[in-house]
Input
Amino acid sequence: MAKFFVIIAFFAFSGLLNAQQVQTASPAALNKLKKVKEAMNNLDWNEAKHLSGQVVQQYPGWPEGWKVYAEVYQGAGDSEISETALRHLVQLDSTDYPEAYRWIAEWSFKRGDYPDASVNFSKYLGLIHDTAELPYRIRLLDSSIRFAMDQIWNTEVKMPKKLTGPVNTDNDEYFPSLSVDGSVLVFTRQTKDPGNTVKKTPQEDLFYVAFVDTGYRLPEAFPFPINTTGNEGTQSLRQDGRIMLFTACNRPDTKGGCDLYYCVRSGDNWSDPVNLGYPVNSRYWESTPFLAQDGKRLFFASNRPGGFGGMDIWQVTLNPDRSWSAPWNLGQSINTPLDEMSPILLVDGKTLFFASNGHIGMGGFDLYKSDLTNMEKSYIPENLGYGVNTCYNEDGLTINADLNLGLFASNRDSLTGKDIYQIDMSPYIPVNATLTLWGTVKDRITGLPVGARIEVQPHGDTLISSVEADPVTGIYLLGISERPAYRIGASYPGYLPYSQYYINDTLSKKSKIQHTIDLEPIQPGAAIVLQNIFFALNSYELLPESDKDMEEILILFNQNPGIVIEISGFTDDTGTDDYNLILSQKRAESVMKYLINHGINPDQLKAKGYGRSNPLATNETEEGRGLNRRTGMKVIRMK
Output
């Protein structure tokens, strides 16, 4: 009610302006203004409002009084009255207060009135003498106004739609995160009235919801101790939905105000949260984590020292001993003097999406796309444009890439607050950019599930997508960047490494590759085919594409020091028997030599060439001959 009377009185005062000439300062006015500033310095905003209201009432034609009146209400957090005061100020004096025009332009920009922002910013520029040294925020406002005007007039807009179903409510929902196939969604919900008679502040909790053919089921809150009486939010799922990283604040084990935590799902149960610890967490603020598809790169936002200002996006990598590397800043092409957050990386390993209020945009936080392979200082991330972005805050993008579907949060609806919206991502990601691979991992003999590590690597590429299968169900799920062929590998202590060469030639846009993996327990006589050992044509020279399988064999020896194995070579029936026998022997010896050169005891290795014998398939087709040209491994004995 008090604010209402202030506004009424304000317009009553302003009506006097047209009838009065511009006044100059008097000793009484200056003394009154001095008291206003003393109240401001003491942060006594009620007294400052009262006194500044008396100033503009008694001296309605004095520009300086309106300027201070605007400053008081700006400091008190009421930009509406502050802006109105500045508009009256520039009516009184249109030349001596250029900053008033800038503030008016900024407020107009924030509410999406871009033409008015453009007019007033032009007046500001016309009054200042040196435009070369403008602060970053002002230069950003200038560029953003021009960008927004161009977007409004020259962009064919397709507005995102609110996510239908039970996810959005009258509360605020934000920071959605999808599994790679879109079957699981987690998000943050802020309950406006937690029903707590002691703690009346809003409550942030994490929610989990599964997608079925008919849409999303009813969301469920994560149990304690994932959710607590404190705030939990800004989460992301690992691509298979089995690991969730999230932000929690002021827990007993936090290193600062807000830290990053993770928990793991096995079957239907989630583990207790674990603090990621130093050096990921610090005494500063960490939030919006994202684990890349290789399982080794973690991106997050932090306001720690060493950045460019505000919240920056940082990265750490997983060391061989499972510790995290020292964080490094993604650099000036991504980070600005303002805030960047909510990074996500596509399975191509280079396309980064993030939110920022520090790049040229529509206002508030906008969503951007960047290329991690282009980190030049002059590189400008791509704004996703009007429709996705508005003068409000858009952040927390998550993508189901094989459906070209994106979800993000926006507060553009004043009635319901922040909600989750859906958008077609086709303009921003390549068609068929991601395929999903899923299946189960089992012990070949017992049929029991195995929580093996699964790695998929496009043939001839270093990019790897990796997860661990669920130890309770054996189910795994991961995304892969579409390529003609892949290496599928699986490993787990006590089993021989699994390797499969997969050719992608029959998949449609929305297909999922289903692949069951049977792991061979390590015991005398156990044998496997190494599908991804490659040689040059008619040669025994190992090709670089063989490296990953060779690394897995080295790990096998390290985990089983007493094991003795035979490396076997086989050919198809092309060529003479003698030629094939010699070639297969030399190829087996090449594998053995590689292992010896990497520290394996020669007494633990045997090499045997079998030529064209023991074919796995017919030699009448190229596909069959390809299966017959192979390298095998068999356990001879174990200590």
Residues 577-597 form the longest helix (21 residues). The two ends are 86 Å apart (CA to CA). The domain at 434-637 is CATH 3.30.1330.60 (60s Ribosomal Protein L30; Chain: A;). The mean pLDDT is 89.
